[in-house]
């Protein structure tokens, strides 16, 4: 089976052959040590790991005999158990080592670097950007600057022309000049967000007014950012690329627990060719921190690892409910039924025998990632509102705290929102009508907040929002607009009765060194103050040390 990884695998094969001599020397050194001290458990363990590396990689590069010799050496190590090693064991390993050296030498002699490929895959299309600007000179300057930054740029001379363009095909991003008619520009953004697929494009607003209220107004209408004139093109491009990269479907993240550099290079080549993001952990002690920081969609788990078994690591994962739905594929050189049973008992989802073909690896990973993401969606999203669940919301909040620890200058605000007298709505109009009210509020939050903002259902009629890069005072102005807009919505019961509902909100900025629980408690106390103050209010928590 051929694929886009062929050239990269050929280069890896040449590198593998160059480095194989050093690994054979390692085997020689370890056998010398075991001849001197047959009870050296560390040397025996290292010997098994090196043979395991050859077993799992030789056939990957077209050398089946290398894999077979590596597997035979690994099996001899397993048969010795806890030792001690005797002379017959060492002789068997040395015979295998001599054959291994011959196979590597023959492969290296016949290996030649292939010519450069005549052609490459077609590059992906450039991100499309629609510039909406009435003033011709400014419009042309912005189009030219964005074109130089590798964007596919089109332009519309004002809001009316843009409305017609958006009726045919939505671009990846819009840059809207709101200077001449701010109301019309903001209305265009609101109409975009309301149409099917309108939540996908990135929207940036530019105007000569760059105050806090202007930024809040832009965010309120559905824009993802606001830039004052004259526009800092580099800053705008940085923000645009960040948002485009973030809002497009993220490439699946694969975490490989693998201490063999050659096997890790093979996995990186094959998986990267299919668009996966791979991170390799060669030290099992770092697994927990990598799981928290990298948040993988799937784990590839080698079995033979320094100081621990891959099976035990999988069992440890399954004891943590945060990783209950995380797919785990066990990679081993053992293809026997008992190895498959052991992988299943440990909690593995799949069992692949090394060396594994690129096609089988990719198809297995793709299937497991797709199912794992779907399960995570079911677990992390509230069934009624589609917002993040309480647990998922707190997990995102912990990620914000980690950013704050790395960069103390970052700003973040926790917003707690609670519907006023919601029990009376359920009692008077019924729970189905109450659910409609919850859905209206969740829809308003999605439409009016930035795509990058974290929005979740905290519980019952409580919602929570995490806003980054806004302090509590700026966020309060935005929430005040949301509060007024929601209070003006006419709700209708199944019996036709019309009524209105309000909400109260408490906000708290994230303090230096503050824990997640303290941050949430501060916002909750502010919410309680809003309730005590008469409801339908927005209260900001006082600064905390």
Report on the structure:
38% of the residues are buried. The strands form five sheets. The protein has a five-stranded parallel beta sheet with strand order 2-1-3-4-5, with helices on both faces. α1 runs antiparallel to α4 (87-109), α2 runs antiparallel to α3 (64-80) and α12 runs parallel beside α13. By secondary structure, it is of the alpha/beta class. The protein has helices spanning 6-36, 41-57, 64-80, 87-109, 136-148, 159-166, 182-194, 212-221, 233-247, 261-273, 287-294, 310-318, 337-346, 358-380, 390-406, 422-429, 431-448, 472-487, 516-532, and strands spanning 128-132, 152-156, 173-177, 202-207, 225-228, 253-257, 277-281, 298-302, 304-305, 308-309, 328-332, 350-353, 412-419, 454-459, 462-468, 491-492, 498-499, 503-509, 538-540. A hairpin with a 5-residue loop joins β16 (491-492) and β17 (498-499). Mean pLDDT is 84; it is low at 112-124. It is built from 19 helices and 19 strands.
List the defining traits of the structure above.
single chain, 545 residues, alpha/beta, five-stranded parallel β-sheet, 16% strand
- Span between termini: 62 Å
Range of helix content: 40-55%
- The DSSP helix count reads 19
Based on DSSP secondary structure assignment, what is the total number of beta strands? 19
SSE map:
Elements: H1 6-36, H2 41-57, H3 64-80, H4 87-109, E1 128-132, H5 136-148, E2 152-156, H6 159-166, E3 173-177, H7 182-194, E4 202-207, H8 212-221, E5 225-228, H9 233-247, E6 253-257, H10 261-273, E7 277-281, H11 287-294, E8 298-302, E9 304-305, E10 308-309, H12 310-318, E11 328-332, H13 337-346, E12 350-353, H14 358-380, H15 390-406, E13 412-419, H16 422-429, H17 431-448, E14 454-459, E15 462-468, H18 472-487, E16 491-492, E17 498-499, E18 503-509, H19 516-532, E19 538-540
């Amino acid at each position: 089976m051929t694929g886009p990884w062929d050239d990269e695998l050929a280069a890896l094969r040449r590198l593998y052959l160059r480095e194989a001599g050093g690994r054979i020397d390692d085997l020689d050194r370890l056998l010398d040590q075991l001849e001197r001290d047959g009870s050296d458990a560390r040397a025996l363990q290292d010997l098994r790991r090196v043979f395991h590396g050859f077993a799992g990689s030789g056939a990957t590069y077209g050398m089946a005999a290398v894999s077979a010799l590596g597997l035979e050496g690994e099996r001899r190590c397993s048969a010795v158990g806890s030792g001690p090693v005797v002379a017959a064991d060492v002789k068997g390993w040395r015979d295998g080592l001599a054959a291994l050296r011959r196979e590597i030498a023959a492969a290296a002699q016949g290996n030649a670097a292939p010519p450069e490929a005549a052609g490459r895959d077609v590059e992906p299309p450039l991100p499309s950007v629609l510039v909406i600007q009435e003033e011709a000179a400014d419009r042309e300057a912005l189009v030219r600057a964005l074109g130089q930054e590798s964007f596919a740029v089109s332009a519309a001379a004002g809001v009316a022309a843009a409305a017609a363009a958006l009726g045919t095909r939505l671009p990846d991003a819009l840059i809207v000049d709101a200077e001449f008619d701010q109301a019309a520009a903001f209305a265009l953004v609101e109409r975009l967000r309301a149409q099917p697929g309108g939540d996908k494009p990135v929207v940036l607003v530019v105007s000569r007014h760059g105050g806090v209220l202007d930024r809040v107004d832009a965010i309120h209408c559905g824009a993802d950012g606001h830039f004052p004139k004259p526009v800092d093109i580099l800053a705008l491009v940085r923000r645009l690329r960040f948002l485009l990269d973030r809002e497009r479907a993220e490439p699946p993240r694969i975490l490989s627990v693998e201490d063999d550099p050659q096997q890790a290079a093979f996995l990186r080549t094959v998986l990267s060719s299919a668009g996966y993001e791979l991170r390799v952990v060669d030290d099992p002690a770092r697994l927990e921190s990598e799981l928290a920081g990298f948040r993988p969609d799937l784990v590839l788990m080698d079995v033979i690892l320094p100081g621990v078994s891959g099976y035990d690591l999988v069992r440890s994962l399954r004891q943590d409910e945060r990783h209950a739905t995380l797919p785990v594929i066990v990679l081993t050189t053992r293809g026997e039924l008992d190895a498959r049973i052991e992988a299943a008992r440990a909690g593995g989802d799949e069992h692949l025998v090394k060396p594994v073909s690129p096609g089988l690896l990719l198809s297995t990973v793709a299937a497991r990632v797709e199912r794992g993401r779907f399960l995570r969606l079911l677990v992390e999203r509230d069934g009624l509102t589609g917002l993040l669940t309480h647990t998922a919301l707190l997990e995102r909040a912990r990620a914000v705290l980690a950013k704050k620890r790395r960069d103390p200058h970052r700003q973040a605000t926790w917003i707690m929102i609670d519907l006023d007298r919601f029990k009376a709505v359920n009692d008077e109009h019924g729970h189905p009508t109450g659910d409609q009210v919850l859905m209206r509020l969740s829809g308003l939050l999605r439409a009016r907040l930035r795509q990058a903002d974290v929005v979740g259902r905290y519980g019952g009629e409580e919602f929570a929002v995490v806003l980054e890069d806004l302090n509590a005072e700026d966020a309060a102005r935005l929430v005040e607009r949301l509060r007024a807009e929601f209070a003006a919505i006419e709700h209708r019961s199944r019996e036709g009765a019309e009524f209105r509902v309000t909400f109260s909100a408490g906000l708290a900025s994230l303090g230096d060194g503050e824990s997640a629980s303290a941050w949430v408690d501060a916002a909750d106390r502010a919410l309680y103050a809003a309730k005590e103050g008469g409801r339908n209010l927005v209260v900001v928590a006082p600064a905390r040390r």
